[in-house]
Design brief:
CATH architecture: 3-Layer(aba) Sandwich
Largest sheet: 13 strands, mixed
Protein name: Serine carboxypeptidase-like 10 isoform X2
CATH topology: Rossmann fold
CATH class: Alpha Beta
Order of helices and strands: HEEEEEHEEEEEHEHEHHHHHHEHEHEEEH
Pfam families: Peptidase_S10 (PF00450)
Signal peptide: 1-19
Oligomer: single chain
Distance between the termini: 58 Å
InterPro entries: AB_hydrolase_fold (IPR029058), Peptidase_S10 (IPR001563)
Number of strands: 17
Family: Belongs to the peptidase S10 family.
Number of domains: 1
CATH superfamily: Alpha/Beta hydrolase fold, catalytic domain
Structural class: alpha/beta
């Protein structure tokens, strides 16, 4: 082999890591990235027609020994780039008025990559930069669980140096339906012949949707506790509707009238965080720059910039408009409740951290506490405040079967509302310290 050919081969190997490519610079960020980012696709399915896109960030501490996390955004159909840039990644979008130039990125202080390696996955196919070479058929919760497991096995076979790292599945919102089932799938798959087992240790979920049909009823006691509805309306609803406010019998006109009154009081509330203005236009024009959710407009400007796509090594022609959440993916919500999966995973000894931003009316903390109570685990560390710098950051309770529940005081539906507090909570839990 000639020296020139050897040099070119070394150059190629230095820039391509297994299935992915190292990204050293990103448009909008000044200078080289201060962490190691790899992006790429893994083909899943028999013909590997489905190409799922991921962002992998190595731990900034000790990648060889620190845990490996898989992060899944909710939706279903939301890109994990949202988790990376809003919730727990080492970069965030700078909040500034868009002027046609690539939006700016800044370093964060709260990244979970300070103590863990993280794979941010765009799933299902159609979310983020994931695409299919053939028409996308209908998918579902149970299908996605198997596909993500397939992705993990293939990703680890191409990154064998991480096979021995402690592995955790993490996410929030709708991933509350996927993560517990995925943990069970991985656990069972570890006993099947011929593939190296995944070193599964547990999972983390924020404001998880768990048993939606039942959980929506907790919005009413939440609204009452937050003074959004009157004592009289709450008492009347309890008495007349008997705790069922969602699937009301059309003949029950008394209950329906009370539910209508409830909606008059709450429909203009920001459901993700009740203290923030309800200013997101949600497709009815551009969100105003002084709105918190202007960042959602900026992330779409950033991800749809051709220079950004080139830097991320997105295959040309595979994706038209990038949307933070793709609501058009044909999807069957076929896991009605993920509670049985939680019970099974706890029985098998997997650790879990379930946390709730306590100002989220979409998935109220009371709903999460209710299904945890239904598991009937004994309490090993009863309800108490957890602190940051001598200030109460939330409340926590630890159960037998290695399950920890925590609230994030002042938090919303996802970690993005209080990323610093959520990061400190995660850091304590992942290292085995009490919150």
């Amino acid at each position: 082999m000639s020296l020139t050919l050897k040099f070119l081969l070394l150059l190629f190997l230095s820039h391509h890591v297994d299935s992915g490519t190292i990204v050293k610079f990103l448009p909008g960020f000044e200078g080289p990235l201060p962490f190691e980012l790899e992006t790429g696709y893994i083909g899943i399915g028999e013909e590997e027609d489905m190409q799922v896109f991921y962002y992998f960030i190595k731990s900034e501490k000790n990648p060889k020994e620190d845990p490996l996390l898989l992060w899944l955004d909710g939706g279903p159909g939301c890109s994990s780039l949202g988790g990376l840039l809003f919730e727990n990644g080492p970069l965030a979008l700078k909040s500034e008025v868009y002027n046609g130039i690539t939006p700016s990125l800044v370093s964060t202080t709260y990244s979970w990559t300070k103590m863990a390696n993280i794979i941010y996955l765009d799933q299902p196919v159609g979310a983020g930069f994931s695409y299919s070479r053939t028409p996308i058929g209908k998918t579902s919760d149970t299908i996605e669980v198997k596909r993500i497991h397939d992705f993990l096995q293939k990703w680890l076979s191409k990154h064998p140096q991480f096979i021995s790292n402690s592995f955790y599945v993490t996410g929030d919102s709708y991933s509350g339906m996927i993560v517990p089932a995925l943990v069970q799938e991985i656990s069972e798959g570890n006993y099947i012949c011929c593939k190296p087992p995944i070193n599964l240790q547990g999972y983390v979920l924020g404001n998880p949707i768990t048993y939606a049909e039942h959980e929506k009823n907790y919005r009413i006691p939440f609204a009452y506790g937050m003074s959004l509805i009157s004592d009289e309306l709450y008492e009347s609803m309890k008495r007349t509707c008997k705790g069922n406010y969602e699937n009301v019998d059309p003949r029950d006109t008394k209950c329906l009238k009370l539910v209508e009154e409830y909606h008059k009081c709450t429909d203009k509330i920001n459901t993700q965080h009740i203290l923030l203005p309800d200013c997101d236009k949600k497709g009815k024009g551009i969100t105003p720059p002084d709105c918190y959710y202007y960042l959602y407009f900026l992330i779409e400007c950033w991800a749809n910039d051709e220079r950004v796509r080139e830097a991320l090594h997105v295959s040309k022609g595979t994706k038209g408009q990038w949307d933070r959440c793709n609501w058009t993916i044909p999807y069957d919500n076929d896991i009605i409740s993920s509670v049985p999966y939680h019970a099974n995973n706890s029985f098998r000894g997997y650790r879990s951290l379930i946390y709730s931003g306590d100002h989220d009316i979409t998935m109220p903390f009371q709903a999460t506490q209710a299904w945890i109570k239904s598991l009937n685990y004994s309490i090993v560390d009863d309800w108490r405040p957890w602190m940051i710098n001598h200030q109460i950051a939330g409340y926590t309770r630890t159960y037998s079967n290695k399950m920890t529940f925590a609230t994030v005081k002042g938090g919303g539906h996802t970690a993005e509302y209080l990323p610093n507090e959520t990061s400190i909570m995660f850091q304590r839990w992942i290292t085995g310290q009490p919150l």
